[in-house]
Automatic annotation (TrEMBL):
The modification 4-aspartylphosphate is found at D60. Pfam families: Response_reg (PF00072). Gene3D superfamilies: 3.40.50.2300. It comes from the Eukaryota. CDD domains: REC_hyHK_CKI1_RcsC-like. This is Response regulatory domain-containing protein. Keywords: Phosphoprotein. Coiled coil: none annotated. InterPro entries: 2C_system_His_kinase (IPR050956), CheY-like_superfamily (IPR011006), Sig_transdc_resp-reg_receiver (IPR001789). Signal peptide: none annotated. PROSITE patterns: RESPONSE_REGULATORY.
């Protein structure tokens, strides 16, 4: 989840080449936290409330519409309310200032 398309492409390349992630794995992308939340909800609905297919979400911290902090909180709450297994949500940011680390 990132508002910069380049970052989404770069993360995909890193996962495939450097982390040994299977190239057959399905990936989705969202441009902001609201899109990510909507995608998670839609996925659970499509699975009849039985599961969430998203196992890993790489979430930018600062985005327009809904930032990564709020999106993570809302995704966690929704998944909890559905009684489903929580996906791993990892923060991704370009900030290197001590206050962000």
């Amino acid at each position: 989840v990132d508002d910069w398309g380049f970052n989404i492409v770069a993360l995909g390349i890193i996962l495939k080449l450097k982390c040994g992630i299977d190239t057959d794995i399905q990936t989705d992308s969202a441009a902001n936290g609201q899109e990510a939340l909507d995608m998670v909800i839609q996925n659970v609905i499509e699975n009849n409330g039985q599961k969430c297919d998203y196992q890993l979400i790489l979430m930018d911290c600062n985005m327009p519409i809904m930032d990564g902090y709020d999106a993570t909180t809302k995704i966690r709450q929704y998944i909890y309310e559905q009684g489903l297994a929580q996906p791993i949500i990892s923060a991704v940011t370009g900030h290197s200032e001590q206050s962000y680390v």
